[in-house]
Amino acid sequence: MTDQAPAIISTDSPFATDVFVKRHPALIERILGAWPLDPEQQRALRALADENVDGVMEPLPADAPGADQWQAWGRAYYGKPWTAAPFLWAESFFYRRLLGAVGYFDDGLWQGVDIFAPFKQAELAGEVVAAEVGALDHIAELAEDDRGQALLLSSLWGNRADLGFQITAGRGSETSGLVADDSDQLWKLLQSARGGSVAIVADNAGSEMIADLVLIDHLITSGTLGEVVLYVKPAPYYVSDATIRDVGDCLRRLLAADGAARGVGERLRGAAADGRLRVWTDAFFCAPFDFTAMPDNLRAQFASVSATILKGDLNYRRLVGDRWWDPTVPFGEVTSYFPGPVAALRTLKSDVVVGLEPGTLATLGDSGTAWRTAGTHALIQAS
Ligand SMILES: O=P(O)(O)OC[C@@]1(O)O[C@H](CO)[C@@H](O)[C@@H]1O
């Protein structure tokens, strides 16, 4: 494996700094507006927002679930500004603190309540998803290979529908081309695994999950794959990250539609019933580390499938490491530690990128960062 590049500390990145001083307080305002929170919950949320903007990071209360573990993980960062910690680490801790502030982990009324559900549900009921579901009738008419590629691209660009990102970036419609396109290699990988099992590490609920489910249906129905293991988050995270509940909501959205979408929903329900589609999770998916630190059980699971496909920006950061890589360092080199063939489908929404051709990088211009963070560019990379 190549030498590790320096980790991204938020103070070194205007984009990451904004996540703490703008995105997180705006998210907290939305939560305050969406729920009948009691005074203590409101106080805890407002304190967390203030801490993010100009306070210092406080550890979890000593009696909170997982407090010892987080105490050990974050010893070097508590008492310092949020932006002084590694970006990836501090964001994960923010979501742990956010859920803790409303009582998600405590016995009582708020235990297990997904505070992001109103935002996810609005997206699922909206016109973007309606158009996406309706478009399946046309895609069904395409030849099998063209349909596969169309669904792959739809799963890729579906990653723009990230509700955390939209808090500060808005829902833009501008898209540029792919900065890296290993889709031929990815299809070869899937064909060589024909009839086998593939892991898909999901990202967002709503529009993106609908696109992922439609792609999964295509891969299973066409016989390309015998089994898909879909990994979701064990708890609400990064606003729109999918949990098992979201997979259920998306499946029901497909089943409630007419035409091709309903067929997709029915086939997926059948695939789940006979084990060809399995939904799984692991606590590590909400841990503040990249995949080099994955636990042995997860490593063994990824090693047992023919390939793993990771969706989205955060999974990409965790796959290659949230680091200031030279953008031309090969994807295969950085991901060589991964237990088995691996691919990434990601729209670019943070500083990290690897695997670019020098010519592509020259065209994008390495000085400006908008192409890295605006969600207008995307990539498909495979090892
Ligand atoms: O993983 P996703 O949904 O594609 O993107 C997550 C994201 O919006 O959140 C992080 C910043 O808060 C970045 O990784 C990215 O901008």
List keywords for this structure.
globular; 17 helices; 383 residues; Rossmann fold; 2 domains; single chain; seven-stranded mixed β-sheet; Transcription Elongation Factor S-II, Chain A
Radius of gyration over C-alpha positions, nearest whole angstrom = 20 Å
What overall geometry do the principal axes of the alpha carbons give? globular
Q: Enumerate how many helices there are, as a single number.
A: 17
> Into how many domains do the coordinates divide?
2
Which distinct ligands sit in these coordinates?
Answer: 1-O-phosphono-beta-D-fructofuranose
* Amount of beta strand: 5-15%
Secondary-structure blueprint of this entry?
Layout: H1 14-34, H2 39-54, H3 67-74, H4 87-102, H5 117-124, H6 127-139, H7 144-157, H8 163-169, E1 178-181, H9 183-192, E2 196-201, H10 207-221, E3 225-232, H11 244-255, H12 260-273, E4 277-281, H13 296-304, E5 307-311, H14 312-320, H15 331-334, E6 342-347, H16 358-364, H17 370-373, E7 378-382
Parallel strand pairs: 1-7, 2-3, 2-5, 3-4, 5-6
Antiparallel strand pairs: 6-7
Organism: Streptantibioticus rubrisoli
Protein name: Damage-control phosphatase ARMT1 family protein
Cofactor: Mn(2+)
What does this structure look like?
With 383 residues, the protein is an alpha/beta fold. The chain has 2 domains: 10-115, Transcription Elongation Factor S-II, Chain A, CATH 1.20.930; 118-382, Rossmann fold (3-Layer(aba) Sandwich), CATH 3.40.50. It is 49% helix and 10% strand. It contains 17 helices and 7 strands. It has helices at 14-34, 39-54, 67-74, 87-102, 117-124, 127-139, 144-157, 163-169, 183-192, 207-221, 244-255, 260-273, 296-304, 312-320, 331-334, 358-364, 370-373, and strands at residues 178-181, 196-201, 225-232, 277-281, 307-311, 342-347, 378-382. Strands 1-7-6-5-2-3-4 form a 7-stranded mixed sheet, sandwiched between helices. Helix 10 (207-221) crosses helix 12. The protein is globular, with a radius of gyration of 20 Å. The mean pLDDT is 94. Bound molecules: 1-O-phosphono-beta-D-fructofuranose. The site of 1-O-phosphono-beta-D-fructofuranose has 15 residues, from helix 8 and helix 14. 1-O-phosphono-beta-D-fructofuranose (F1X) is lined by residues 19, 91, 159, 162, 164-165, 203-204, 238, 312-314, 317, 349-350.
